[in-house]
Predict the structure.
Amino acid sequence: MSLDFSILPTPCYVVDEDLLTRNLKILDSVQRRAGCKILLAQKAFSMFSVYPLIRQYLCGAASSSLFEARLAREKMGGEVHIYAPAYRDDEFAGIMKYSDHIVFNSFSQWDRFKGQVRAYPEKISCGIRVNPEYSEIGTELYNPCAPGSRLGVTRENFRPDDLEGIEGLHFHTLCEQNSDALEHTLPHVEEKFGPFLKRMKWVNFGGGHHITRPGYDLDTLVRCVRSVREKYGVEVYLEPGEAVALNAGYLVSTVLDVVENGVKVAVLDTSAACHMPDVLEMPYRPEIVGAGKPGENLCLYRLAGPTCLAGDVIGDYSFPRPLSPGDRVVFRDMAHYTMVKNNTFNGVGLPAIILCREAEGFRVVRRFGYRDFAARLS
Ligand SMILES: Cc1ncc(COP(=O)(O)O)c(C=O)c1O
């Protein structure tokens, strides 16, 4: 599809519904082949204007907070699941109101809230997050199984005597990984928690399954899910976030100025710090439409944001032609972990949110202005 980004207000996130649908169809094929249920992890992608589309394929949403649970209930429907490292007393009534599944991170949290869950007039299915102490994630920042991690109960701290009312186990140990990492993880889960899985109704394999990326091994995933379902008689949930919106969106920006200091620096109207914070946090280098690595094209530029942060730098890229103020720079794969993490540091405005479809062109869903900036301050 050829999109004419030059007509759009910048900065803006553009989500391509055709590409999103392509991802959703792959996820649905996994649900059907493996006999599992897939939830959208909203922490990665909460663009609720496309929740009705997502709901056509997925069975609901995973939430990390009361607000996400409410968003899922109000905008998506289907099953609403929640997990957080700890719940607040003053939010728990709301969490019960919006959630079908509540996953607790510890037995102390379970003990604190189980009376309320039992007394609640509607059925809520409760689970415990476990830590199998095995993960192939290299970066400590993203490794829930790193030594000293607060995320999930280790076997040593697992309390078989406190499982009455617990219907499921949850583990999350992957990050942008192929299904071989899941296949290697499952024996650790089974070795530590297999005897308890037999007593459960469901198991949630968490997120980090990069199911929609080219080359992902779907057959291994399907085999893993089926084997756990059959061996333990449990229902299996997956809650990918990134895989739902992978390669389905762009961040479109405009060059504001080009300055020189040993290297040509193009200052954009989008910021790594404000609009794509994972570029600095992960860190990673986003791809740009029509640009390459240094040396691949004639004209080399460092791309940087309009904030005061010296390190608000997206990276060095080469372009076939010189950049000038007014030129568009289009970053790829900007739908996930962008809108949900952005901020207005320096008073930089938030990117507009735009949808597109091959048949219909662009549709501006939301524009942000001064009021949105001021509304978060007082
Ligand atoms: C508990 C849990 N579930 C799901 C996800 C979604 O992961 P991803 O977006 O990598 O698929 C995360 C990400 O951190 C998570 O912590």
Summary: The domain at 5-14+249-334+342-375 is CATH 2.40.37.10 (Lyase, Ornithine Decarboxylase; Chain A, domain 1).
